[in-house]
Amino acid sequence: CCARRRGYAKLSVSGGATVVRVDQAQKAGEPLTHAELSMVEDQWKKVTALGAETVGVLLFKHIFADTPQAIDLFKFKAQFKTDGYESPMLKAHAKKVVGTVGMAVDGIRELDKLVPTLKELGLRHAGYGVLPAHYDLVGAAFLKTLRDGLQDAFTPDAELAWTKVWGAVAAAMKQGAAKKDELSPEEVTLVEETWEQVEGLGAETVGVILFKNIFEIAPEAKNLFSFKNEENLYESPKLKAHGANVVNHVGIAVAHLHDLSKIAPTLQELGKKHGKRYGVQPAH
Length: 284
Known about the structure:
It holds the Pfam family Globin. The chain has helices at residues 2-9, 22-27, 34-48, 52-66, 77-83, 88-106, 115-127, 132-150, 156-177, 185-199, 203-217, 237-255, 264-278. It is mainly α.
């Protein structure tokens, strides 16, 4: 065991992209077969025998070799600049990552039971700035790490099996990350209560205040509106009517916060109209 661990620690980071054959890519989304399940379990025992820290550090070497800017996503980035891969914080985090993969492998035959935990992990990582595309980068680095550790045992069939494993883990975490922008029941209630106070001021009044703030932040935005050249702009009937209309649409959205799917088509159509007819861009 110890001799193998020392040998693994001396392995250099392998170069080149991870290549999956076309027929493998087509099968990557399929469930793991019984043979693949057994292979993954057996190979993971060999990998973990090398030490979670050793495996984790090599994983991060691959991640940063492929995507150097990824270092900015981690709390240990400052320590990494001075200590490199000897950083205690990096090593601790690396062990956690390997532990998470191990948890997935241990429960691979009943992955559904792990999905809630993986979703929660994905939601947490979304808060750190992790994006869906990052899972593909880490997945590629993970396969390279397995290749370094398993060497000849990392056959095309093994690569396919591990691609399926990572795909299942990443899919669950991405689902969790998607909930980052969802409102909690408490937040929905808070929005509804505060919107009642806003509505009490009157849609026209709130609309005018809204446009005052828009034009203060971005004066050039006036060019998007038909009332841009009117004198006494904030007394303009057109501006007041448009402002009230905007506020009323927000009110409709607030009223449907418990089930936005009911008005999503209307909002999407409104977005398309503003883009095509009025030149409104996503940044606006």
